Structure formats: C-alpha cells, structure tokens
C-alpha cells in the first residue's frame, strides 16, 4: 500500500512539474508574443507619427504655397492698380503728373461720405499746395478724352483673348443726371429726374451726362459693366450763359453726342472683326442715331420703340419692267392690333438678370422711317399683367432670344450708375467750374475702371469675407463696393508693412492690425 501511495505521489509530482513547465513555456510564449505585439504597435506608432509628420509638413508646404500664391495674386492686383494709374498719368501734362498718383490714392482712401476733392487731398496726405491741385483740375478736364482712351485701351489689352473668341461685343449707351446744389455751378440746369422718390419731382437740378459702357462677361460673376466714355450734355440756355468763358463750345444733342462716342469706340474695336451690339434706351430710338449707326459695318442696334411708333410691312418686290422709284414702305402695321390679337403668340425661354425666364412674344419683320426703309426685326413682349414692350433689332436676321437677352443686359448700366454715385461719390466733389466737373467725372470713371480690372482675377474668398455677416448670402457675387474695399485694405496694409519694415509680425498684433485696417477701409 505504501509503495503504491509513493508511486502515486511521484506520478502526481511529475504531472504537476509537466504542467508547470508547460505553463512556464506558455507564459514565456505569451510574454514573447506581447513583446512582439508591443514592438509592432511601437513600430506602427512610429510609422503613424512619421506619416502624420509628413502630412503636417505637406499641409504646411501646401498652405505656404497657397498663401504665397494668394499673396502673389493680391500683389498682382495692387501692381495692376498702380500700373493703370501710372499709365493714365503719363498721358497728362508734366504739371499734373507729379501729384496725379498720390491724389488717386486719396480718391481710394477718402472716408468723407460726400467724397469731395478736399477729402481726396486729405486722403492722399498730399504735401503739395492744395491750391495747385484745384488749379490743375480744369487741365485734367480738358484732357478727359485721353483718360477715356486710356480706359478703353486698358480693357482691350486685358480682355483681348475674350474679345477675340466671343461671338459679339456689347456696348450700352444711356444718360444720367448728377444732382448739384447752388446757383454758381457752371453748366448745371434742370433735367429729367429718373429717381423722383417720395417728392415725385419730375425735374432735378444738376448736370446731365451721356455715358457709354462696355459689357464683359466674367467667368464666375456674370456680366460686368465698365464706363468707357462720358460727355457732358449742355442745353443751349446753359451754353449762352457760358459763351464768354467757353467760346469754342457748341450745342450738341444727346443723340449726336452718343453717336460720336460710339463711332470713336468702334474704331478701336474694329481690330477684332466681331459683330458689335449697341444696346440703347428707347429715348435714343431716333433716326439721328439709328441711321448713322446703320451705315457702319458690323453694327447691330437693339432698342425699345414707343407704343405709338409707326412701322410698315416690307414692300412687295418690283415687277419686271415696272417704272418709277421703288417703294420703301408697305402697308402700315397696327402694333396695338397685333397686341390685342390672340393669334401668333409664342413662348420663348431666355436668360435675363441671371435667371432663366419664359417670355410671351410675337415677332415679325418690318421697315421704319427711323432706319430709312432698312428691314428690322420687331419683337413684341407681353407680360402677364397685360403690359407690352416693342423691341427692335436693326439686324433682321438676329434671333428673338438674342434680342431679348441683349436688351435685358441694358438694365445693368443703372446698377453701374448707382455704384458710381453712391460708392465713388460721382457728382459730390463740390467743384464749380465746367472743366473741373468734367475732370472729377473722368477721375470717377478711371477709379471704377481701375477697381474692376485690378480685382478681375481674384476669387470670391479673396475679395470678401462674409463670416461677420452670416445673414448674408455667402455665394453672392462681390459688389463694386466689396472690390473697392478690398483694394483700400490692401493699399493700407502695404503702407503699414512698409512703415514697420517687416513681415514677421506676431499673430496677435497681426490680428489686431487686421481689424484696425478693416475698420479704416
């Protein structure tokens, strides 16, 4: 019995020792596996850290590259702005050139709501005698044509490729008054008031200007309007008062002024060999405009007719051997009867004011005494409320959709007038002389041109930050005021950095300076 017990104990010890050795081996293997797993995890962590470091470095490089690209683009905008101003100054007399550039910076930085010439001088901080600037304004007014030539030359140079590849070039003509106050404003008189307001005043006192603008399509923001020529319209009674001061001035009607401006601009645009669409308001639908423009090649005039305008059918072809002068006009067309008739109406989709709309139209060919018998395309547009508008194109082959879209573009010039008067302060410079008024008008037009062209290549995020106004439409295209404020900000920023003579400004100070400059601009 004892021997059996001993053998059982030995067997159990052996089993226990085997179990222990197996457990030890398992523990060693587990520790080894854990060690390997730790090493793998450590290796993965190191690899992940290296990858994250690479990502951060790549992001830094991309951010730096993007920042550099943005700063280069922004600097290019400032360079273009200064180039435009310098180019305009070079066409003026030496007595004007030395203060023209700083004065123009003052025009951009002026903070006075009236934007007077005095506020321009204060904004420029000119150390030149201010009386000299006032005395040189009439000199600039006499050479205003050179400024407008410089504007159209700059537009052609900047948008050469776009004009060369487009199907047509669009220019718009219209007139607008700038309100003035005081009995001693030379050339001021009473003119039709386009914005009567609550007073419902039919007339306003001030100057009346005939303006020609060119329409350029931006790849992201749609149609942009730039003034390319402006001339002051003086009535005979105003000229009679100024005959002793300006004996060379002669009376010219608005239609004569507009035709001369179009002819001057078309000569520069002929190099592209493109169809030029002249879009004018119904007030210029006159034979003194349509007939001279009709004699020019590649010119298509699109305008609105009066409701009581007279148009005729195209006369029948002459019979063989028929004697006498050929007929210019057929039977008279009753446009009101065509509007009242329910037959012949069509629905056409077109783009107007950036939106696709459906218009109810009736189109036909006709002749008119306004064009001296040259066939025209008449398009009657009837709205849902019963109102109707007759449009014409001097190119009888032009499509109805093109006529509707082209005339719809005309209303953008009113937005341009609003920006010129409210943002640039056109008509608020408080000068009395006739040529001084022409000078400040030319400078306002040059400012508009310089702002648009220098910021043309910038994107929405560069031009405006709407994070401070979350109620605003984030994707709304930048207004002229946004573009102008951007340039003001960049000009002030450049001046500040040049004063500090360093770009390595601490981030906190930089953010404070940014807020200050934004408030100042």
Could you walk me through the main structural features you see in this protein, from its secondary elements to its overall organization?
By secondary structure, this protein is of the alpha+beta class. It is built from 16 helices and twelve strands. The longest helix has 89 residues, at 2-90. The radius of gyration is 37 Å and the shape is elongated. The termini are far apart.
Unreliable sequence segments: none
> What distance lies between the first and last C-alpha atoms, to the nearest angstrom?
111 Å
Radius of gyration: 37 Å
Identify the quaternary structure here. Answer: single chain
Beta content: 15-25%
Quick synopsis:
Helices cover 51% and strands 18% of the residues. The chain is of the alpha+beta class.
Write the layout of secondary structure elements.
Layout: H1 2-90, H2 94-109, H3 117-124, H4 130-142, H5 144-158, H6 160-165, E1 168-179, E2 189-192, E3 203-218, E4 222-233, H7 236-241, H8 254-269, E5 275-280, H9 287-294, E6 299-304, E7 311-312, E8 332-333, H10 335-340, E9 346-352, E10 355-366, E11 376-382, E12 388-393, H11 400-409, H12 412-422, H13 434-454, H14 460-463, H15 480-500, H16 507-520
